[in-house]
Amino acid sequence: MHRFAAFVVVAVSTACAGQRVESVRSADLEGALEAIELNIAAIQRHDTEAYLTQYLSSPELVIAGADSLRRGYMLFAEARRASDQWPESLITETPTLVWIAPGVVWGGFAYVSVVGPDTTRGVTERLLLKTTGGWKIAVTGSMERCE
Questions:
Q1: pLDDT confidence band for 9 (50 / 70 / 90)
Q2: Element (H, E) at 136
Q3: Which backbone phi and psi does 141 adopt, to 5 degrees?
Q4: Nearest by Cα to 124 from 143, 146, 102, 97
Q5: Rounded CA gap, 104 and 131, in Å?
Q6: Which residues contact 143 (CB under 8 A, 6 or more apart)?
Q7: What is the Cα–Cα distance from 78 to 122, expressed in whole angstroms?
Q8: What is the rounded distance in angstroms from the CA atom of residue 45 to the CA atom of residue 31?
Q9: pTM
Q10: pLDDT greater than 80 at residue 118
């Protein structure tokens, strides 16, 4: 009888832990999706300050491009504030999200961007971290498709 009670306790504990993990996973994916949507909306509105609030304000922020890899929020924010270049049109597909661990979500999506006469198609990805200030993009990168 004692072994059966121990088995029941372990089985119930495991089931509850699984439910808690799924609850955390689900909440993380929802929060990260909202952060990505806010990021896209800020780009579409050409709202520099709203755009910058979506990024981790840290020297650990990573910005990866086809021809560069930069680190640090300060230089990223200065460059964004100094530029008035925004896409005239930005169309994105529904983001694909992958829960990595509690408070860590990877997201990626395809996009079409129009700036002047140039149309760019590509894929962008973000690694988001849950912070005390909400979900923040800690790593961002884009890859343009060659056509």
A1: very low
A2: strand 134-144
A3: -155, 155
A4: 143
A5: 10
A6: 66, 122, 123, 124
A7: 25
A8: 21
A9: 0.82
A10: yes
Six-digit token string for 46: 């050409």
The C-alpha atoms of residue 60 and residue 113 are separated, in whole angstroms, by: 27
Q: Which amino acid is at 118?
A: D
Question: If you compute the radius of gyration of the chain from its CA atoms, what whole number of angstroms results?
Answer: 20
Quick one: average pLDDT of 131-138? Answer: 97
Residue whose structure tokens are 């460059």:
79
How far is it, in rounded angstroms, from Cα 77 to Cα 91? 23
Instruction: Report d(CA 134, CA 50) in Å as an integer.
Output: 13
Q: How far apart are CA 111 and CA 122, in angstroms?
A: 6
Q: Which two tokens stand for residue 140?
A: 């961002």
**Torsion of Cα atoms, 146 then 40 then 130 then 58, to 10°:** 70
Contacts of residue 75, defined as CB under 8 A and 6 or more positions apart, other chains included, come to: none
| Helix ranges (DSSP H) in the chain | 2-45, 48-52, 73-82
CA distance linking residue 21 with residue 15, whole number of Å? 10
